[in-house]
Every structure is written in C-alpha cells, then in structure tokens.
Amino acid sequence: MLAEAPARAIRVGGINIAPGEARTLSIPLAVRASDDKTAAVAVPAWAAVGPKAGPRVSIVAALHGYESSAARAAAELTRTIDPAAMSGSLVVVPVMRAGGRFAPGDRAAPLWTFPGDAGGTREQRDAFALFSEVTVGSTALILLAAPPPGRRALPAVRAAMDDPRTRRLVAETGAVVALATRAPSGSLRAAAAEAGVSALELRAAGGPGDEAADVAQLVSAMRAVLNAIGVLPLDATVRGDGKSEARRETRATDTRAARPASPAPLPVRRTSTVRAPAGGLVEPRAMAGDLVRRGHVLARIEPPLGARGIEVKARRDGLILESPLRLTARAKTKLFLIGDLARADVERAGAAPLRARKSERSRAHDTKVRAGWVEHVALPNLGIARLKAKIDTGARTSALHVARMKTVDTAGGPGRRPILEITVPGGPRGKRPTKVRAAVREYVVVRDTSGRMERRPVIETALRIGPFKKRILVTLTNRGDMLFPMLIGRTALGPSIVVDPSRRYLLSIS
Q: What is the predicted pLDDT for the residue at 106?
C-alpha cells in the first residue's frame, strides 16, 4: 500500500502557512510617499494548506474595486472551508485593487499591467509582487467579477477554450454561458495563461437587490471548480461549528459520488455591442437572458427637448448577455451585449430557463505532450533563444548555469530584493555569453548530486519548451562541469508534459 505524500507548507506575504492551517495575512506592495511620510500599502489575503498533498489554487476578486458581490463571495468561501478537509493549498484575495472602491480616499490607483517588473516603476513593482505571490506556483487561477454598476448580465464564465484543462473546469462552473475569449494583454488572466496556469473568470449577474443570489452563485461555482481540481472533497458540507464533513459513499469502492447531470454552459464564441445612437431617457424592451432576432426592438431612447424617440434594434440573432439598468444614457455608450449561439444551442436556450446551474462532469481528457530526456528550450527574458536542457523529473526545481553573478542594485519595496547581473550561456556553440539583470525572488539551500550543500539565488523567468511558454522559478549556479547548461525540474514541466527517457529532442521551439 502506497503512503500518501505529506503536504508542504507555503509562503505568502512573508508568512509560512503549515499543513492543516489557515491564516489571514497581507501581501505588501511598494512604499508610498505621502506628506513627507512613507506608508506601506498591502493587499489583504487568506491562505490555507490541507494535510494532504495536492494542487495550489488562487482566487482573486474585485480587480477593479467595485465588484462588491465578488468580494463578498471570496470572503464567504474562506468562512466555509476547513483546512483539515483540503488537499493542496488555497490562496484567496478578496479585493485585489488596493486603490479601488474599497480603499480609503477618493483617488483610485491605476490598473496594473501584469506580470509586472521587479525593477520598474512603482506600479510595475506592485504588479510583479502580486503576480509572484498569487499566480506563480498555482495550478489554476479563478477570477471573480461582476458587471459594472448600472448593468445586469447573465452568470458567465470567460476563459480561453484552447486548453483542455480549462475547458474541463469551465464545464463545472454552472454558469449559463461560456465566452471563449482571450484576455487583454497585460491583464492578470492573460499573464497567468502565459505562465501555463489554467485561468478562468466567473462573472455574477449583478443588479439591485440580487447581491445575495450573486454571492451564492459564485460560491457554488468556486466550490465546484475546487472539487474538480481536487482541492476540496466531493459533497463537503460545513457544520454549524465551522468544521467540514464529507458524506460517505454507499459503496466502499466508490471514491466520488454521482452528481445529477444538468446542461453545460452555452458556448459563445463571438459577441457584438449595441450602443446608444443618441443621449436621452432609455426605455428597455429586452433584458439579459432574452433570445432576440435581427430587427427586434431592444430599447427606445427619448432624446431631451421633445425630439422624436429612437428605436434601438438588434442587428443580428443572438442571446442578450448584458443589458442596462439605468434609465439614462449618453450617446455612444454601451447598452446591450449580444452573443452568437449555434442553432442547436439556440434551441437548447429556448427550451430551458436561463439561470445559474451546475453542469454535468466533462468527459474531456487532458492531452499530454511527449518530451525527451534532453530538449532545446528558450529563455526569452534572458535573451537565450536556444539552449540544451536536461529534463530531470527526479529534481523538483530547475537550475541554470551562470559563469559569474554580482549584486548591482535592489528592487525596492518592503523585501528589498537584490538585482543580480549574471553572465548566462549564449546558446548554440560558438555564441558568446551575455550579461543580463534579474531580480532575486528568494534564496534556497540545495544539495547537489555529490551531497554538497549550496545556497543559491532563485529568479523568476519565462521558459519556452515545445508549444508551452510559462513563467518558472530557476536557481542560479555554476554548472561548468556539467554536460548540459540547464536542468528542468518537474515543477517547471507541469501536468501537460510526459517524459520519454529513451528519446531526445522531440519538441521544437521554432
């Protein structure tokens, strides 16, 4: 009988969280200068580690600062989880935007561009700190959102559907519609996907008086996704004393319970925006959840000063995803968002009520990419376009050969992390080494194959291997006596790559 691997402690915001423990903490950002004083700004967070080994999942809400239902749902989830029933770890950030609606003062902080830069401006350093603490090392990232104030929407999930792992999680959310959209460049979801993390955005319905329903819908969707990933046990319930219990199966051989099947989210691959042709009073004739045909009257706008009213009509068939709640609008402002559905999905939407629901479990399987024990990789952030690397699943971390390194600066902020100037391999034989700068994330003590202990700096950089590009942690050391200048550990490979120890150079980075 195989023994279960014990869980590992995680470190968030400079605090270690041990297995079976949950902590409320904060993630420090750059120091602000105000009125000749400095004040450290931090983002509140919550983290828990289960007693069993498993994946790490991060949940982030209120990226703009106004999504109160999303922030409440994230806080509610933390109150209903018992770390003793978990596998792996969970990090929850109820309000990501520290300078948004929930921050003191009336000056909103600028939106961050992720993944940020440890040696850049204050906003870039903030984005780098948050991305490193929340996303790096996670298997999945769940973003919680809500429509802007004054709008109503269908419960939806947004994700890039080209990743089979993400598609499987989307099917578990219970959302009404699934939008196969790529996130804008620089957003947290886009940066997470670039790092190889399965990222999806859960959006509540919004609307006055519906916040309790929105919170319940988001919490249900999060628990379903966490169950599909393996962080929470199936059918875990929370007792009145705050501790969790799981219902036992009727058959001893069953490890998972059967759940009632329900329709999967309606796939939407293209959307169109209907804008107000003129400013004035808005009289809506349709709302989110309605199926409309081309030429259907969506709203009527009554301009001021007695001008003739204008009818706003749909330009194509589809499902209304968002509709206005406010009774006034300016010219060119967004009124409706309409999604295109396939004919079969139109019939399914018309036959079933459009409401938050739990989908049947997806039968899609992860597709694995086969790699050899030696592959060519690229490190674009370090200027390395092609480098031989040994794939070592017996090693947990990755290592890169550096001929020389020295500290030239510090990244600033509470951590004062040093910035190193390192001499890295040039790549193909005959190409001269290059000097680059990189911020140190942490220092670790590593035992090499000879049994010697060595303290090494750890940096975060982008790795391109085959069709994948992800951000990984790499230790820096002198590997001049080794055959390969880089070693790729199992944490950098992820679940989508399997290694064939009898083959070499199965992947291409061109």
A: 44
